[in-house]
Amino acid sequence: MEFENDTNYLDQHFLIDKHIINKFVDEANIGTDDVVVEIGPGKGQITDTIARRCGHLTCIEIDRELEHFISVLQHKYDNIDVIYGNALNVYIPPCDKIISALPYSITEPFIEKLLKCEFKECMLIVGKRFADGVINKELNKLSLLTNCFFETTRIMDITPDAFDPAPRVMSSMIRIVPINRNSLKNNFKMYVFREMFFHRDKKLKNNLMEALIAFAKEHNQKLTKKESKAVIDSYEIDKDTLNKLMENLSNEEYELIYNKLK
Ligand code: SAM
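# S-adenosylmethionine complex -> structure
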């Protein structure tokens, strides 16, 4: 593997500001019966506070070199278990809360991973740029994806000096809560995008056709494939874009499609 014996790519910026650590865990409102998953416990600064408050904690950590720190906590508390592996690939067990300060470079695949997880709420520390995009409802792929599936609240912004080593960018603490499809019933554009995000391996034209049919069905109306195609024709999206797989669309194309939908 390209990064073997090199953990720099893991982007380890450990939270050291006790005030921020406490705020992060306080905002998760952890109850004594809560089942919590922490992804990337690192040296365990957040883990210690979570374990003290929750019913059970599963940690998922990719870096075996940090094993010592988690072992110390496992001796201190009897409610922690650990999975060593890549959180993007391992099964995340159903839980009440997910808590994580993951490398910002994997924000997008991590949000995609969350779509397949069962949880009530998730507290994250993310790059401020990402938080701004989601809160301001920007029309790029990552913001649209997040807003189609989650209600996001910014708790606070965090300056680089809260971490060691300090990252180059500002961070934000956010809470995301899953929303169900029904709550988008009256939001045509977001409903259609949400449907399409489930099938990113399909061509846009087919994906859009199915999504329009699903939206009509949600409103007890019938839209045939032919009618759906006619609606898509009326959007005047160029053929090249319509023939692209959803996952290969650029941010500009996401914005264009969003603006064309009516
Ligand atoms: N939670 C600690 C804190 O706030 O101080 C550590 C945060 S550090 C930014 C990111 C942590 O996530 C590191 O412990 C790193 O090894 C771990 N990590 C990075 N990529 C991961 C992945 N794909 N799966 C699981 N853990 C990962």
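# post-check
Confidence is low (pLDDT under 50) at residues 1-7.
The first helix runs from residue 18 to 27.
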